[in-house]
Structure formats: structure tokens, C-alpha cells
């Protein structure tokens, strides 16, 4: 028996509108959540046109002309804008009847390309019992006929399986949310034997080790440790009514284990290092989970992945920004202090779910609004962008020749610590702006 996709009713109208405006075909992504029993689709997003298509009004006439790299890049950027629990769970094509024969082959190719691209950037591995089916949705622009199939992305030789596509009103109007703030202090040494420090590579390796700590952490949900297999809302009142969006929040504390169990042995290694990277600060994390009797393990897994993704994504965005603004050689930059982008959230109409993004301090609301239109085909009002208050950070200057190195580093660290404490105080005091995040990237060279 094939999988069933429960789909937000508004998506039907969105896809219908696309079929009348864009011909002969249009591609896009399906966004939602997998669960053992059923899958949920809460957004469909068309692939943004390339600049030359905008300018010249080019209408590509063959499915063979689909730009696979452009679609996978779009999928990677969309994935950065999804909070925990949400993922790109499929691809759609709306095409004329003449193209229907080739549509399924194009969909299959896109599904595996998108999944390969998304897997590369993840610092976590899917569990064995995790759903690995992804949706391939084909719609005829003339007859409006919908055909949904799935492919197992863990099996390169997977063949198409039929799936049900069912629309439902207010599908995600009362999903559950888990919130937490994670304090991070990651020290990444750079070996003296490495001739050229590729900070991006070293940072990813350091984050990889840190992600394993998060995977092994203890999660307190509303102050309690709960068994994995019990229902998340057991012992709590479930919100009634699903016609208006309302969110039931759970506050989560993350307890990182300081040491391994007695069965694990560890050895210390002394290595000569010429520099180090320090990631310090507090990150705001959030995950959403469906309200169909979700298990605790589903919710915690979604939140773990959001914690890991949000830090990894911020570092990736920082390096991309440095390369764009200062040139490719700046991958090995020598600046000693950088501020990672802050997280922000925006609501989805008719849903309790909020989508995510990141902004640097000098970015205006208009730039954020443009990004949501381009990446997610969603108009966002400036007042709906939930971000933290702007907080100044300390810019660490390089060590000068006329000052003792050790004393300079002590002063630098003391100043940073004081400033971070001040920032944390502001974040805690800002009760309304619960999505604040201040984070710093430090590079110290001996």
C-alpha cells in the first residue's frame, strides 16, 4: 500500500494558479513533514525564474531543458529557511499534455538530485526507521489531473509507487512547537602542520564533532524527561478546534553530557596549533510537529536537527557572504571577529507554523521580504518579521606589535565574555522578541 499525503487545501489553488500563468511547464518543491503513519504537505513553492528568463521572457519548450542545478540550489536555500520538523519532501511538475510522458522521468531525476544535494550539507544521519520516500507530483495543466507517486531516495534503483494526494483544510493550524535556547562554546584548533588554514573546512569538522554531542544530549520537555515512545501531549490538554491557527508551545532545556560513560575510554592528544576558531553565543531553536498523536522521539529528533542545522547554516551563510563581498581568497580570512547572522521567523497564513531565515545586522527589512518572495514565493509584511532587537557586538582587533600577546588575548576574552553576558541579559529581558540570537565567530592566530 502506498503512502498518503495530507495536503493544505490552499496548495490546490496555488498549483491551479501556476498552471494557468506559467506554460508550457513549471517545476517546484513540496515542503512538509514525514511521519510513520502519514505525510503532510503544508507548502508548495515554484522554482524561481533565472535572470535571463525574467529579462527576455524566455519560455522553455522541452522538459530536457530543465536546469537541474538551478532547482537543487533552490532546494538547498529553501532548506535553510525551514525550522526543525520541516523538510523538502518532494518535487512537482505542472506540464501540458504533450509533455506528460516525459514528466515522470524528469521528476524521478530531480528527486534524487535534490536529495543528494540536501544530504551533502547535513551534519546528521537519518535513522533506520525514518521515512525515505519522497513525493513526485505530476499535474496536467489542461485537465488538472493530479498523479502522485513516491520514490525511495535510499535506493537508487527505486521504482515509482502510487500515493494518495488528499486536500485538507487547516491542516497545520494547531501544530505543536518546541522552543529552546542553546548556549554554544566551541573551540576548534587549527594545526600548525596545515600550510593553509581553510577555515570553512575546519569549522565544519568542528561542528561535526559538536553535533554528536547534541545527538547524545538529554532533553527536558517542560522540565521533564519523557520516554521516547509516549505521546508528546500525554498528560496535557490538547487545544480544541482547528479553524484558526494556534500553537501549543513546549519549553525545552538541552543538557549536554560532559563525559562519556565508564564503558568508553578516551585518550588525550597533544598537537601543536598555530591558531584557533571559537564559536560562542546563544542560538534560538524551534521545531514543529504534527498534532496527530506525535511521539516524544519524533519531536526531540526534529529539535535536535534544528539545533544542528541552524548553527551549520549560519556558518555557511557567513562564509558565502565573505566570499561574495571580499573575494574567494577570504575563505582563509585573517579577521579575528565576525558576527554570525541572526535568526528570524515569519508566519505562514492559516498555519501555526513559522518559516525561518537569517539576517546580518546591516540588512534591511526590504531585503528579507525580497528573499521570501524569491525563495518561497511568499509576500511578507515588515511587521510580521520577528527578529531580536539590534545589539552591538565587540570587534576584536588584531594583536599589535607594541602590546604583549598574552595580555592582549586576556583582555580580548574578558571583553567578549562581558559583552556576551550583557547580550544574554538583553535577550532574556526581551520577553516579546523570543527569537533573538546573538552569535560570534572568533579567529585567533598566534
UniProtKB/TrEMBL annotation:
The chain crosses the membrane at residues 424-444. Keywords: Membrane, Transmembrane, Transmembrane helix. It holds the Pfam family ODR4-like. GO terms for biological process: intracellular protein localization. The keyword Iron does not apply. It comes from the Eukaryota. It is found in: Membrane. InterPro entries: ODR-4-like. One of its GO terms (cellular component) is endomembrane system. The keyword Transmembrane applies. Belongs to the ODR-4 family. May play a role in the trafficking of a subset of G-protein coupled receptors. This is Protein odr-4 homolog. The gene is Odr4.
